[in-house]
Amino acid sequence: MTLSALLSRPRARLKQNRQILGSVAALVGGNMSASVLGAVGGLLVARFLGPEVTGRFRIYTIPLTYITFLHLGTFDGLWRQIPFFTARQMPEKAESLASAAGAWNVLVSGLVSAAFLSLALAALVRGDTFGVAGWLSQVICCWAVFFGGYLSATYRTIHQFVALAKIQFTQALLNFSLVFLVPFLGFFGLCIRAAVPSFVGVWLFHAKRPLKIPLRFDRKALGEVVRVGLPFSLWGSLYTSVWAATESALMLALGGVKGLGLFAVASVIREGMNVLPQSVYHVMTPRVVEAYAREGSVRKANARSLLVTAGMVGMMVVLVIICSYLLGLLVPLAIPKYVEGIPLMRASLWFSVLQAAALPFNTLFATGRSWLYGRGVIVGIIVFPLSAYLLAPALGGMLAVVFGSLCGRTARTLVAYAELAVLNHREVP
C-alpha cells in the first residue's frame, strides 16, 4: 500500500470533522481566554482581600447554588431534545419545547429574585449593609442562573458555539475589569463584580439567541421537556450544584469564614482547569446525541468520544503535575495571605482529570435513560461524605472534604464506565 493511500483516510476524516474541530477551537479558545482572565482576576482579588472577606461573600452564594434545581430539568431537556428533533427534521417541535421552557425559567427567575429582594430588605431594616449588598447581588445572579442558563442551552450549532464563546469572553473581560474596584470597595466590590457581568451576560445571550421565538407557557410542551430533562437534572444537580454547595457548607462549618475563603481560591483554580475538558464535552454532546438519534447505536455514538478522552486525560495529568509544582512557587509571592490554602489548591487540580475522563458519558445522556446516568451519582454521593469522614483524622477537616469529593467523583466515574461497558456488550455488533 502506498504512502498516499495510507494518508488518505486520515485526510478524509480530518476534512469531514473540520467544522467540529473549528467549533472546538473557537469554544476552547474563548473559554481558555475567559479562564485565564478569571484566574488572574481571582488571584488579584486574593491579593487585595484576605480570606475572611472573600469567605463572607461566598456565604451569600450558597443558597442560590442549592436551588438551581428549580429549572426542573429544562436545561437538560433542551440539551437533548433540540439536537434530537433537529436530527429527525422536526425543528417546529424543538421550538415549541424551547418556548415553554423559556417561559418557565422567566417565572422562576422572577420568584427567586423576589425572595432575595425580600432578604435584602430585611437586612436593610436590621442595618446590615453587607446583607443588603450580598442579597442584592444574588437578585441579579439568579437571572443568569435560570434565564441565562435556559438561553445558553439553546445554542447548539457550530456558529452558535462561536457566538457563545464570544459572549462568555465578554463576561470574563468585564469581570476582570471590575477587579480593580475591589481594593477600594472590598466586600461591596465583590458584589458588583458578581452582579454586573451576570446582567450583561443575560442581555447578550438574549440579544444573540438562536431561537427568536415568543415564550409561551404551554403545559404539555413544558411537561415533555421536564419529563426528559428532570431525571437527568436530578442527578446533574446532585453532582454539580448541590455537591458544590455542600463542599462550601462543610468548609464553612469546619474552617469558618476564613476556611471558606481559602477554598474559594482553590475553587477558582479548579474551575479554570476544568475549562478545556468541559468545552470539548459541550461541543461533542450534540453530535453524539444526533448520531444516536440517527443510528440508534451506543457503540457508534461512544466511539466518537473514547479516543479524544484518552488524549485529554493524558494532557490534563501533565498539566496538573506542572501546575502543582508552580503553585508552591507562585502562591507565596502572589497571594501570601492564602499560603495555608496551597494543599487545597493542589488537591483541587485533580478534578480536571476526572472531568476529562467523563467525556464519554454524553453517550449515557444520549440514550435518554437517566437511571444509567444516576446510579454512578448515587454511589459518588455515598462515597463523598464517607471518604471525608474516614480521611479527616489523617488530613484535617478541610483537606478531607476535598479528597472525599475526589473519591466520590472517582467512584461515580468508575460506575459510569461500567454502565457503558454493559451497554456495549448488550448491543448486537
Automatic annotation (TrEMBL):
Keyword flag Phosphoprotein: no
Transmembrane segments: 20-45, 57-79, 100-124, 130-151, 250-269, 306-335, 347-365, 377-403
Annotated compartments: Cell membrane
Superkingdom of source: Bacteria
Full protein name: O-antigen/teichoic acid export membrane protein
Keywords, in A-Z order: Cell membrane, Membrane, Transmembrane, Transmembrane helix
PANTHER family documented for this protein: O-ANTIGEN TRANSPORTER-RELATED, PST FAMILY PREDICTED COLANIC ACID TRANSPORTER
Topological relation to the membrane, as annotated: Multi-pass membrane protein
Organism from which the protein derives: Geothrix rubra
